[in-house]
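User: Earlier you gave me the apo prediction for this protein. Now I'd like the version with zinc ion bound, so I can compare the two side by side. Same sequence as before, with the ligand SMILES added.
Assistant: Got it. Here's the input I'm using:
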Amino acid sequence: MYRRPLLESVCICAALLLSAPANAAWYKGNTHTHSLNSDGNVAPDEVVRWYRGHGYQFVVMTEHEYITDVAPLQALFGAQEQFLVMQGQELTQAVRDPKHPDGERQAHVNAINIGKVILPMVDGTKSARSTRVYTVSEKISIAETYARNLGLIREAGGVGQVNHPNFRWSVRVEDMLNLPDNTLFELWNGQLEINNLGGTDDSGQKALSTEALWDTLLSRGKRLWGVAVDDSHGFKHLEEPNGAPPGQAWVMVRADRLAPEAITASLVKGDFYASTGVTLDDLTVSEKEVSIKIKTEIRPGVVSIARFVTRFIGRDGKVLAEVSGSQPRYTIRGDEGYVGAAIMDSNGLRAWTQPVYLPRSR
Ligand SMILES: [Zn+2]
Ligand SMILES: [Zn+2]
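And here is the structure of the complex with zinc ion:
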């Protein structure tokens, strides 16, 4: 049975000191999931059953241009403080680009906690890749689609998420310089062919890793929160190499209760961390210090012998300190621009805390 861990920590987000509510708890969730209601390979109830059965406390159903009605799923699988199904959508936006090998770039965004479908922008242009993709001509920029789509998501009371910027090598720094503050940014997407790590092609064309993209945007004064997600499509045949299986990457959200409004509010203010397998027992952030306790107990009474290294990162992706061990700390000087922590264990599992924006950084 899931027990709520009580928290005593405080965090600063967007340069403000915020006290975690006395009864706040961490909730594990995935903000990017598909089912048969779009291009996933099982029915929504199987999706929800998978997440509920694998230690998650919430999942957001984000079909392409479709809102899965979560009320029946919540009635069946939801339980107070134990499991929550949230409504959402993926807006499958593309922009034509004759210079791109696909003839278009993908600018998908997720809408978390909205009630009605928001159709992406269209102007009569056909997608070169798929009839499922909503495409506009090159007269409209990716930045304009983000402004319009993320604006509508916010108006609908949801939180927007920039999905997989390196999918089909689509999105560049200049496309994201006008993203609204407090937008979520997919720092890690668990699907294959997403190119999280960036790279250089045979002709020398370079693309930044999603982590470096994030650091570049933060260094330019953007305030974006890094999420790790599954983008799960494949719940059957989990052995298939390209099956987009669940359980790859997630967020741990600190909220005062397990409800759509509370989870959404914590996502908007950045009170969460992203993970592909490293769990934190505690995360305390003040204007003076970032202090982390990494969970080493993998099962009751069983302590992992994995080793951890934490990099504290500042402006321009500069490594401010590299600290070994399970209780890394960093004392903030004040001139770092922002301070975030990227943790990796000796098996390659990772976690990322949200940046602390320092008052003098903008
Ligand atoms: Zn997508
Ligand atoms: Zn997706």
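For your comparison, keep in mind: Confidence is low (pLDDT under 50) at residues 1-19.
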